Amino acid sequence: MQDQHLPPAEAAVFELFALRYAEHAGRHAGENFLDAAAVSADPHEAGSNLDYFIWLARRGHEVVVIDTGFGADAAIRRGRQLHRTAREALALTGIDSHQVKTVILTHLHYDHAGGFGDFPAATFHLQEAEAAYATGPCICDPAARGVFDVENIVDYIRSLYAGRIRFHRGDHDLGNGITLHEIPGHSAGLQAVSVPTARGRVLIASDATHLYANLARRNPFPILWDEAQLRAGFERLATLAPSMDHIIPGHDPLVMRAYPPVPELPVGIAVRLDVAPLIPFAELCA
Is the Cβ–Cβ distance between 33 and 221 less than 8 Å? Predict the structure, then answer.
């Protein structure tokens, strides 16, 4: 879909952070690629495990949160290690989630939309196609609904009835320099988020590519809604970002190595994405 109403190049920039809140350890590389035979089955291959992130864009008093993570119940049911909730992660940066006004949901899978209740003042931005899929007839298929949690969807419906959902159909300019870009494939209405920063536009790809290696090898993560659209999405990511070093995958532990930590916080909690990476994309994927 064509970009619409892109903001001016001189738009004021944001600070941008990845906040790590959970992990899934003990995976091997083959679990992360649709074509597992094309990759090493070595369980120690870099990026085999998954990290779980939310993202924070901050400009003075303006705060935009991207995704809301999951909580303790989902972590127990799904065998994930929860280090902190999204609310707790934001509190470490001095932000009270109860005061946040703008939340972008990249999609409604359990690990990206599990914290509606922690953002009672927020307006949530979501693609129409994602909402339609998560509440439509396809969810009659147990396999299709496995990546959603019903309580999250109920919370979404409550937010909808409270007038706190803003729907978008395709690419959209939020009016503050941040743009949304619909890239279906992993889910029916996944949206990537382009944020103006001091180093140029940084593209939060979310699950349009789980790992750097999914994008580099053009080998999708095996949880998907439409393989052809997901593969096309790899190409779109490359056109939306100034360079491959400006693309941030949704679940790669290498993000925590590639970018500098936030000095005020313990290592392993948050990194800055608005500065150049310590390790470029080419080296991460070598």
Answer: yes
> How far, in whole angstroms, is CA 48 from its chain's centroid?
18
Here the tokens at position 249 are: 């995958």
Classify the phi-psi angles of 170: left when phi > 0, otherwise alpha if psi is within -120 to 50, otherwise beta. left
Pairing of β 200-206 and β 247-249: parallel
- Helix, strand and coil content of the chain, in percent to the nearest 5, comes to 30, 25, 45
Q: Which residues pair with 286 in a beta bridge?
A: none
> How high is the mean pLDDT of the chain?
93
Note the pLDDT of residue 5. 43
Least confident of 32-41, 96-105, 196-205, 242-251: 32-41
Q: From its phi and psi, is residue 67 left (phi > 0), alpha (psi between -120 and 50) or beta? A: left
Query: Is it the case that residue 7 has pLDDT exceeding 70?
Result: no
- Assess contact for 71 and 82: CB atoms under 8 A: yes
Q: CB of 29 within 8 A of CB of 39? A: yes
User: Could you give all domains of the chain from N- to C-terminal order, each with its CATH number?
Assistant: 15-277 (3.60.15.10)
Instruction: State the pLDDT at residue 9.
Output: 44
Average pLDDT over residues 259-264: 95
The C-alpha angle with vertex 31 and arms to 25 and 34, in degrees rounded to 5, equals: 150
The sign of the CA dihedral 29, 283, 246, 236 is: negative
Amino acid letter, 196 = P
